[in-house]
Amino acid sequence: MICIPVTGRDVEKMAQEMAVAAEQADVVELRMDYAPGADLRRLLKDRPRPVIVTYRAKRQGGMFEGPEEDRLRLVQKAVDLGAEYVDIELDAAARIRRNPKTRLIVSHHDFERTPSDLGRLHADIVAAGADIVKIATMATDIRDNLAIFDLLRRSKKETIALCMGEPGTISRIIGKKFGGYLTFASIRAGRESAPGQITARDLRTLYRYEKIGWGTELYGVIANPVAHSMSPAIQNAAFEAVGRNAVYLPFKVDGDPVAFVNAFKAIDIKGYSVTLPHKEALVAAMDEVDDLVKRVGALNTIFNREGRLIGANTDVSAALDALTAALLTEKERRSEEPPLKGRVALLLGAGGAARAVGFGLLARGVRVFIANRTHERAEALAREIGCEAVALSDLASVAADILINTTSVGMHPNVGATPFPAALLRPGMVVFDAVYNPPETRLLREARAADCRTLSGLAWFVNQAAAQFELWTERPAPRNVMEKALRERLGK
Ligand code: ATR
Fold first, then answer.
1. Which of 100, 129, 165, 426 has the smallest number of CB atoms closer than 10 Å to its CB?
2. CA–CA separation, 486 vs 437, rounded Å?
3. What three-state secondary structure class fits 408?
């Protein structure tokens, strides 16, 4: 079930918010501590959904600051009025008289950390007479979620357990898989009643909350930051399109990614996408890697074959396939010659993306030059993969057929920037921008105006994601669905 808390400051606002929340929620939580004087009887009279009535005390993270006696009187009134659920803190539960119509959620919040002895706390809450146990703890590390999942899995009593904070967001999405009674979601972005909440709409449409259950397979992207990743939108859309019982999550990993992957074996993650800044570090955590990962020294995909983690790299072929497919003429595509052989490519940037593309280009017989803001990095990468570095002041000296931008220059929100002087763009040149947000960057716009052939990073991004999906599921990826989901997300 999805519960949406409403936090209006008076009875009118509460009633309005309850009506809006009811469209997305199975249960509405009336956070009466935001409007303690509001007429509860009136709110309950026309409630469109079952409600949880909560007068959260300040000491447990709520707004109620008055005397405890007053607070308990209000909670008692909610019970006496027959609200479906009342939430009462563990340390006050004994003071509430029961009513058979009302189920008591006995709760404990820890805003500092996720204690290791959750089992004891759970037992104390059960002993206090809870109909439903609620435990919410602050996650300081994404691994804290595992304590919550373990608790849910072992619990015989109906239990709501979740981690707060951004590292805890996944517990709000997949707690249900481990038996969680309900999850809290916000009515809309910016109206979260606790840190790490996501909107009910995202829960339903992006993560397909309805379908999550014991058998749901888990996938996700390991990144930092992860909040703006497009991968959850496109991979979840793909799972939905092929009818697979799977959910794809954002894993914000700011500590050691190897420790994360090892710890999360406990919940049998079936596959990962890996992106900045973890592509190199995770190679060491694999049971097996393919040849390309060995040669490039970086992976972007992990798949789980009967518990063994296998690292793969779909970045390189995704970039090269996009380049070959979209930019060569029909005649070139049909010719026997390896299509890119003998061409001259100029790569802008010297990070992981440049390394992957440079590597792929060289393997296809392209002559590669690298230019970068920090020239020493260009030289180091050129030495490492076996090509040439060129100074930014000397770009005109390279007669490139192919220009590839792998820097973030021109990416949203700095859409006015470009990494390459328009004056050096020549007709017929192939210009490939790894940036996909926006799909048409200033570089591509100027390239089109200069009669170049252009390719957006969108094709690269969709290619690498589709290849990941195929490694995980061993079936063709619904590429059109993935591209559509990406464009929709970018449009927001
Ligand atoms: P990735 O793995 O995506 O390639 P990265 O390793 O952080 O990411 O590399 C980013 C690249 O974009 C680098 O080449 C970086 O240049 P520096 O080596 O000088 O840092 C380049 N880059 C990022 N922001 C830039 C900017 N504003 N102007 C020019 N180059 C930039």
1. 100
2. 10
3. coil
Indicate whether 331 pLDDT > 80. Answer: no
Give bridge partners of residue 272 from the DSSP assignment: 220, 302
- Does the pTM exceed 0.90? yes
Query: N- to C-terminal Cα distance for the chain?
Result: 27
Provide the CB-side half-sphere exposure for 457 (13 A, CA): 25
Backbone angles phi, psi at 31, to 5 degrees: -85, 80
**Ligand 1 contact, 374 CB (< 6 A):** yes
138 vs 367: CA distance, rounded Å = 52
CA distance linking residue 247 with residue 217, whole number of Å: 6
Cα–Cα dist 114/178, whole Å: 18
Output the residue whose Cα is nearest ligand 1's atom 12: 407
On the CB side of 14, CA atoms within 13 Å amount to 27
| CB neighbourhood size of 354 (10 A) | 26
Could you tell me which of 334, 323, 388 has the C-alpha nearest to residue 360? 323
Q: Is the CB of 370 under 6 A from ligand 1?
A: no
- 198-212 average pLDDT score: 97
Q: Quickly count: other Cβ atoms within 10 Å of residue 211's Cβ.
A: 16
For range 22-31, the mean pLDDT: 97
Closest CA to 341 of 350, 353, 332: 332
CB proximity list for 470: less than 8 A, separation 6 or greater: 476, 477
- How far apart are the C-alpha atoms of 199 and 457, rounded to whole Å? 29
Compute the mean pLDDT over every residue in the chain, rounded to the nearest whole number: 95
Does residue 389 line the site of ligand 1, with CB under 6 A? no
